Known about the structure:
Helix 1 runs parallel beside helix 8 (230-245) and helix 9 crosses helix 11. Helices cover 37% and strands 26% of the residues. The protein has helices at 28-36, 54-62, 123-131, 145-150, 152-159, 169-176, 181-189, 230-245, 250-267, 274-277, 281-294, and strands spanning 3-6, 10-16, 19-26, 42-49, 65-73, 78-84, 91-97, 115-118, 138-142, 164-168, 195-199, 205-209, 212-216. The protein has a single domain (3-294), classed as UDP-N-acetylmuramoyl-L-alanine:D-glutamate ligase (3-Layer(aba) Sandwich), CATH 3.40.1190.
Amino acid sequence: xxxxxxxxxxxxxxxxxxxxxxxxxxxxxxxxxxxxxxxxxxxxxxxxxxxxxxxxxxxxxxxxxxxxxxxxxxxxxxxxxxxxxxxxxxxxxxxxxxxxxxxxxxxxxxxxxxxxxxxxxxxxxxxxxxxxxxxxxxxxxxxxxxxxxxxxxxxxxxxxxxxxxxxxxxxxxxxxxxxxxxxxxxxxxxxxxxxxxxxxxxxxxxxxxxxxxxxxxxxxxxxxxxxxxxxxxxxxxxxxxxxxxxxxxxxxxxxxxxxxxxxxxxxxxxxxxxxxxxxxxxxxxxxxxxxxxxxxxxxxx
Length: 301
């Protein structure tokens, strides 16, 4: 088995916390695949331009990420420029240039098997990737407010084919019209996905499965540098944990939530994937232990 991730590869220019970085590695498939690579054999399906730096290809290879599905097309790589306010909760998009990603059509080399993560991109591309694969063990999907606003019919069709859905709280309420997070999760579960994960940024994440509900807090990070890609990191880490365990039991899902929260916490400590790509398993284990420890109930009076 393996994790197959379909999403974007981009060069980001970001302003956050009084600092600015120019054309650093970004994109939903990038964050998700690097996070996934610590536990699972991972393949990335995306597109970049001829200007895409070789050092980033080498980074994928360092993490043993299969890049045979990364198309290098004539033209420029997708660019995104954004700016965060002091609370880091929402980015203001200053400009988006799709470039070669505008004509991206996912080409799947190995059409069989694996756990598929349709990272946050245009639902038309997500659907195209899904129909080109067979014998997929599990389908997970991430989306955003833009697609809910502009392509809700396509999303509804995709949700029918999805096992795990990742959305943030605002998106869950936007899609369902519900004002309560629990009511929104129930409404989303009726559209197809058996498992709904609602991300709430610094306030943690909820997992809903039938009549079960589980909450995990975010790991408390002392200094936040950049929250770009945190949700993508969470999704990639979650799917890799599930793939490594090969089942969707409640204990596995709970541990996957903790693992995903920890990986996302590392991501926000740097711009781009600088922190994430240089992690050690010892650092991950230590932070995972800490997060589980601080959530234990005390029986002391």
